[in-house]
């Protein structure tokens, strides 16, 4: 699986020599986590417009792992922060004191779009 990810990402980026894919074991023995690190100039290429490229890579890896009877996740390491880009399931809670941009008032009437 690691070689599949390396092959896909190396053929997308401008600096294939700096592509590093690491494999991490998780508490769940059937789940493997893959982390992709690329040159800072190539992060946008791997993410793609509206995240389409990284979503496609995740889908390919998911299908390949299902065929092997396992599960796998793929995350891209952000070069500046070292954090991963993940596919969030829920939106974060708004910070205290942030303006209400929900578009409805207390009666439920839509007042913004």
Describe the structure.
- The chain has one domain (2-85): GMP Synthetase, Chain A, domain 3, CATH 3.30.300.20.
- Helix content is 27%, strand content 19%.
- The chain has three helices and four strands; from the N terminus they run H-E-E-H-H-E-E.
- A four-stranded mixed β-sheet has the order 1-2-3-4.
- Strand 1 (20-25) and strand 2 (31-37) form a beta hairpin.
- The protein starts with a helix and ends in a 28-residue tail after the last strand.
- The model has no long low-confidence stretch (mean pLDDT 82).
Q: Main β-sheet, in a few words?
A: 4 strands, mixed
Strand order across the biggest sheet?
Answer: 1-2-3-4
Number-wise, the strands total: 4
How much of the sequence is in beta strands? Answer: 15-25%
Q: State Rg.
A: 18 Å
What is the CATH first-level class name?
Answer: Alpha Beta
User: Could you estimate the helical fraction of the residues in percent?
Assistant: 25-40%
| Uncertain runs | none
Which architecture per CATH?
2-Layer Sandwich
Shape field: globular
Per DSSP, the total helix count is 3
Number of folding domains? 1
Alpha carbon gap, first and last residue = 44 Å
Average pLDDT for all residues? 82
Class of secondary structure makeup? alpha+beta
What is the H-and-E element order? Answer: HEEHHEE
The CATH fourth-level homologous superfamily: K homology (KH) domain
CATH fold call: GMP Synthetase, Chain A, domain 3
């Amino acid at each position: 699986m690691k070689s599949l990810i390396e092959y896909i990402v190396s053929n997308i980026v401008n600096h294939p020599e700096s592509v590093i894919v690491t494999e991490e074991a998780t508490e769940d023995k059937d789940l493997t986590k893959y982390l992709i690190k690329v040159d800072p100039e190539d992060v946008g290429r791997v993410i793609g417009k509206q995240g389409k490229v990284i979503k496609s890579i995740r889908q390919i890896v998911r299908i390949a792992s299902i065929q092997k009877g396992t599960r796998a996740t793929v995350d891209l390491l952000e070069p500046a922060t070292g954090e991963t880009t993940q596919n969030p399931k829920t939106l974060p809670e708004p910070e205290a004191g942030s303006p209400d941009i929900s578009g409805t008032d207390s009666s439920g009437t839509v007042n913004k779009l």
